[in-house]
Amino acid sequence: MCSSNPSSIPSAGNRQTKVVWIWTESKQVMTAAVERVWNTFIFPPDRRELANEWSFCLCPYYSIQVSDSDVFFENQTAIALIHPLFIEEEKLFDSEGRRVATFYEVSSPQQLQQLQPVDKQPDNVIINLLDWQVIPAENIVAVFQSSQITVFAISKTPSEAQVFLEALEQGLGGIVLKVEDSTAVLELKDYFDRRNEDNNILSLTKATITQVHISGMGDRVCVDLCSLMRPGEGLLVGSFARGLFLVHSECLESNYIASRPFRVNAFYHTSTRSGPIHAYVAIPGGKTCYLSELNTGKEVIVVDQNGKQ
Fold it and tell me: In Å, how far are 43, 88, 109 from 46, measured between CA atoms?
């Protein structure tokens, strides 16, 4: 099957909504977050003045007025509102004094075991994992998955946030991004954009191979992933970025090879069954890269025969 440019694919819905709150004293971080519709901010008790300043941040813009043959430029202002939350004695309150969350620090297995959902608990729990992250995050997801409580984890980098949002393939309900560098906000937003792509359905079209030409020897590529593929799934690979082919994984056994559901021979050829290094492969963000550019940690798009990512 052949795919058109991945950047023009329609949306087919969204995953479970994840919430992002920002903890910062940097105006650049605040601006970057608000521009990405993350407008809930956490402040320590001694920074209420900063919260008040940001809550009515004046943003300049210009309007054009036309009167007869004259054009006038008028400097105006617009108000960008944020939702401030304040820390008081390991709890979180809104501007009207209502309790919205409770903080918990987890630095030992014993503290993790004591963390259990309580009926009278507020809607939100914020967890600060001071030590190991992956296993505690998975345990927290397992404990709270049947409750109505939203669990946040404090993250100091986008990569930490990704761990919490993907634990047990379900993830925590939200992230408190505690940073002073606006680049972290941009990277986290880019991650969410890639997550949303997973729900897009690609438009695949059947193609007929009319001729095969043997073009000689060359370096070849097969791609090993850190996850398993099911029958019907593979990568989008081709010699043109605007027209890629669905290349099936090695999840099916044959008379000659055992099943390797983590592997894709990146371009099927009647004699080599492998991919040339100059071929393109689809990656997140509606982009492609050369097979020769793939390295450890690089993300690729896995698609099934129905176009589902």
Answer: 8, 10, 33
pTM (two decimals): 0.65
Give 207-216 contacts, CB < 8 A, sequence gap 24+: 207/1, 207/2, 207/245, 212/269, 212/270, 214/271
- Alpha helices, H only, 96-223: 109-114, 134-144, 158-166, 182-197
Q: b/e per residue, 151-184, with b = 16+ CB within 10 A?
A: bbbbbeebebbbbbbbbeeebbbbbbbbbeebeb
- Listed in order, strand segments (DSSP E) in the chain are 2-3, 19-23, 40-43, 57-67, 70-80, 83-88, 91-94, 99-106, 124-129, 150-155, 174-178, 204-205, 220-224, 234-240, 243-248, 263-265, 275-276, 280-283, 287-290, 302-303
Q: Express each pLDDT in 190-218 by its tens digit.
A: 888 877 766 677 888 888 888 888 777 77
